[in-house]
């Protein structure tokens, strides 16, 4: 549906995008996730036609949008764009915001707007309201309806949920994902929120310093990250030095199986918190003790003292009654450790 080949961009001698390659399937949801300054928004603006790359090729549905000889302007691309915080026109009511850019008679526009409002689950009574009279979540739905009004083949979402509170953000994100799937519109979400990327997308592209460090399904990039930086960016992780041999890793937690039977010698292994089961034990059984407990409701962060390890280990896990400083514990590992060399 959409193919990027070797797309690059430089601003004032700073390489912002460095030979990016990406394929977006029809009707799919892709999330581009990375820290601030990694190039995410620049890429989105290039896809929308608001910026021009220095090199590379962009093709959508077999039509070249950009190469060394072609540049299709934004209004001719058939791409929808939902900016951060919606960016509604404050001088237009909800109905006129959605109808902006639509062609046809006033009656035809009203029928189309009513259908779009129903599509994005907006009460028709809000049509005459001004943007400042509706909630943040409703504003985002209006912005989405306005973008869908143009019947785009691709929808670009630039951190559209970041201004919403936590509960509303999750509900709006789920509703948006479902709506785009039902409409059969492919989408690209740009975000710095790892949880948002993993829950929204069918494909996640992790971006760092203008490059994609890894592209894959949410499960692949989370459970099989290509390097430590990607692993730690995508969620809590325990990364330990280890001696590797024949698919096993000898580390401070004992001997654990790994995902790389060929790896040998010194290396580092990663475990996600959900792979670790912590249970109380007798002091002589483990030698690992809790030094501190930071309770935060469902989750607690444990500071653990481990024999032979100078630095304490910080581990976030499900809260349990009875945990306190000085409690001896045992750590069991489920699954395999990810090997980094």
UniProtKB/TrEMBL annotation:
The family database entries (PANTHER family) matched by this protein are listed as: PUTRESCINE TRANSPORT ATP-BINDING PROTEIN POTG, SPERMIDINE/PUTRESCINE IMPORT ATP-BINDING PROTEIN POTA
* Keyword list, A-Z: ATP-binding, Cell inner membrane, Cell membrane, Ion transport, Iron, Iron transport, Membrane, Nucleotide-binding, Translocase, Transport
A GO molecular function assigned to this protein is: ABC-type ferric iron transporter activity
Q: What PROSITE patterns does this protein map onto?
A: ABC_TRANSPORTER_1, ABC_TRANSPORTER_2
* SMART domains per the UniProt record, alphabetical: AAA
Keyword Metal-binding listed: no
Protein name stated in the entry: ABC transporter related protein
A GO BP annotation = quaternary ammonium group transport
Tell me which Pfam families the record gives.
ABC_tran (PF00005), TOBE_2 (PF08402)
Q: Which GO terms describe its cellular component?
A: ATP-binding cassette (ABC) transporter complex
Transport keyword on record? yes
User: Per the database record, which ranges form the ABC transporter domain?
Assistant: 2-234
Q: What domain of life does the UniProt record list for this protein's source?
A: Bacteria
**Entry coiled-coil feature ranges:** none
Q: What InterPro entries does the database record attribute to this sequence?
A: AAA+_ATPase, ABC_SmlMolc_Importer, ABC_transporter-like_ATP-bd, ABC_transporter-like_CS, ABC_transpr_FbpC, P-loop_NTPase, Transp-assoc_OB_typ2
Q: Which Gene3D superfamilies match?
A: 2.40.50.450, P-loop containing nucleotide triphosphate hydrolases
